[in-house]
Amino acid sequence: MKTDLFDRLGVPERIREIAGYDLFDPDLRTSLDALAQRSAGLLEAPVSLVSVVLDTSQFIIGSHGVAGWVAETQGVPAEWAVCTHTVLAGEPYAVIDGPTDPRHADNPFLQMTGLRSYLGVPLTGSGGHSLGAHCVIDARPRIFSDVDRAVLADGAEKAMKLLDAYRLR
Amino acid sequence: MYSETPYGLPRPTLDDARAAVHRVHAEDGPRVWSHLVRTAGLDGSADTSEGLERMLAAMHDADPISRLCALALRIRVTSHTQLTLLTRELS
C-alpha cells in the first residue's frame, strides 16, 4: 500500500479531530446529501461529495449523483481520491481535464467513472487541520470560475457548521 | 485467471491493519495493537482474510480512532471486492 501517502494523511492529531464528530448519524447524512445536491445544482455538475479523508481511504459522508461501486463502498481508496489532493494542499484544488492532466491521467477512479473535471474546497476543522473536502465532479473538461469556487467555499462552510452540530461530547 | 489487484488495488492484510493502528495512535500504537490482537483472539501472525475480518470487527468496537482506521480499511476491502467482480464481468 502507499505508505508515504498514508503517513501524510494519518497524522494522529488530524485523525483524532475527525474522530471527534459523529459521522454516522443519519440526520447528518441527510443534511449533507442535501448540501451536495444543492452544490451540484448551483454548479451544474452531475456529482458532488462531502467527505472526510482518513489515513487510507476517503469516506463519503454526503453525496449527490454517486453510483456503482463507489455508492456501494461509500468511499474510495485514498490514492485514487482527488479530494486527497485538496486535503493535502489545504486550499481549493481544481482539475480541468483528468485524462490530459499528468497528475491524474492514470487515476483508475477517473478512468472507471468517466469523470474528467474536479473542483474541491477543504473542510477545515477548528484545530486547523484539513479534515476532508466538499467537491463537484463533472464528466466534461471544465475550467472553473471564481464564482464556482465561491459557491463551493460557501458549501464547505455550511458543511462544517453542520458537522459542528454533531461533535461528540 | 483473474488479477488479485484489480486496477492495481491490493486487498488489505492484517499487516496493513497493524501499520494503520501504529500510524494513527503514534506512541500508543504498540499498546493499542496488542489489546486489539487479544480482543480479536489472534496471535498477530496468521495473516488470513478471516484474521483481518476479526481484527476489523475488534477495531470497529474499540476507540473512535481505531474505528475510523477500520472504516478506511473496510472501504479498501469493499472496493477490492467490487472491482474484482467488475473485472470478472468485463473479461
From TrEMBL, chain A:
UniProt-listed InterPro entries: GAF, GAF-like_dom_sf
Ranges that cross the membrane: none
Domain GAF stretches: 27-155
Pfam families (alphabetical): GAF
Protein name, as recorded: GAF domain-containing protein
Organism: Actinoplanes philippinensis
Biological classification of the source: Bacteria, Bacillati, Actinomycetota, Actinomycetes, Micromonosporales
From TrEMBL, chain B:
Protein name per UniProt: Uncharacterized protein
Organism: Actinoplanes philippinensis
Superkingdom in the source lineage: Bacteria
